[in-house]
């Protein structure tokens, strides 16, 4: 991860300089780019459905990503790809067996642009298109702010921020190349709005705040290409990374102050929001974040 941090820092500095000196020429060139007609056509599918859509989800071998995949499959997605660094386990295999030829796994390191490009190219080669992308892969680390090391910060930002950004920009280029009005959905977090008192992490909240800001900005930038960019901010969700949250001795007491639904969500309870944003029914929805937090969230 330290190598990625070094190369990212160097190349970003170079890119910033070149953009600053050549904006005039680039703006003129951009004016010549043909933009998609974003108006719904007569054959537009107004049903909230993912019928005939090819969708990739990062980090979908387990947890929230796998829950999203399962709900997408239940809503008629043609093909779902999980882009993950690790091999899938029994839970993934069970859902794959129940959906023959519709759920697939590709090894992918989302902190590597080359790895992301290879995965997306493989999907397009196999199916001729890609219509939706969920940048969901992420990690968390809950501890007091004064205890974080630089290495831990780099790891969080490399995966949660740079990884999400590389995924979005890479798939956006492919949408533009193929002339597809694609949809990108980030997984943000309620901690991008306010502190999570049950499991505080200033750096994690900062990474998800960055993701939510990217949602608004990229949605604005890419709207004229017919590309929609949105995000979902989950509250407390029961996954392998949050198993400890409701085991705390003061959990019930905290829930009295939080209000709302005093429990962790099943990952599949988030899926409906992703399905809507990935579907053609959301053709005029871009640049927004949808909290799915049962009120509890991280108030």
From TrEMBL:
Classification via InterPro entries: NAD(P)-bd_dom_sf, SDR_fam
Molecular-function GO term, any one: oxidoreductase activity, acting on the CH-OH group of donors, NAD or NADP as acceptor
UniProt superkingdom: Eukaryota
Keyword hit for Oxidoreductase: yes
Classification via Gene3D superfamilies: NAD(P)-binding Rossmann-like Domain
Transmembrane segments: none
Low complexity biased stretches: 1-24
Region (Disordered): 1-43
UniProt keyword Signal present: no
Keywords: NADP, Oxidoreductase
Family (UniProt): Belongs to the short-chain dehydrogenases/reductases (SDR) family.
Name under which the protein is recorded: Uncharacterized protein
Organism: Cylindrodendrum hubeiense
Lineage of origin: Eukaryota, Fungi, Dikarya, Ascomycota, Pezizomycotina
């Amino acid at each position: 991860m330290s190598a990625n941090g070094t190369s990212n820092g160097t190349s970003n500095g170079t890119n910033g300089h070149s953009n600053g000196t050549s904006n005039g020429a680039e703006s003129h060139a951009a004016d010549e780019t043909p933009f998609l007609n974003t108006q719904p056509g007569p054959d537009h599918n107004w049903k909230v459905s993912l019928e005939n859509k090819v969708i990739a989800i990062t980090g979908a071998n387990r947890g929230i990503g796998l829950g999203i995949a399962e709900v997408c499959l239940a809503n008629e997605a043609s093909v779902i790809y999980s882009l993950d660094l690790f091999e899938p386990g029994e839970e993934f295999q069970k859902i794959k067996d129940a959906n023959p030829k519709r759920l697939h796994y590709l090894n992918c390191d989302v902190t590597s642009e080359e790895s992301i490009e290879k995965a997306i190219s493989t999907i397009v080669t196999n199916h001729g298109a890609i219509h939706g992308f969920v940048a969901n892969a992420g990690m968390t680390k809950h501890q007091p702010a004064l205890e974080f090391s630089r290495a831990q910060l780099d790891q969080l930002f490399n995966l949660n921020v740079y990884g999400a950004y590389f995924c979005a920009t890479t798939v956006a280029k492919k949408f533009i190349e193929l002339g597809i009005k694609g949809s990108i959905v980030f997984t943000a977090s309620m901690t991008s709005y306010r502190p999570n008192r049950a499991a505080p992490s200033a750096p994690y909240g900062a990474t998800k705040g960055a993701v939510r800001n990217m949602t608004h900005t990229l949605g604005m930038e890419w709207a004229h290409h017919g590309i929609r960019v949105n995000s979902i901010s989950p509250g407390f969700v029961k996954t392998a990374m949050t198993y400890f949250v409701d085991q705390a001795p003061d959990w019930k007491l905290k829930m009295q102050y939080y209000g709302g639904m005093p429990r962790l969500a099943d990952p599949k309870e988030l899926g409906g929001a992703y399905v809507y944003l990935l579907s053609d029914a959301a053709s005029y929805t871009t640049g927004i974040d949808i909290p799915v937090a049962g009120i509890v969230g991280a108030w």
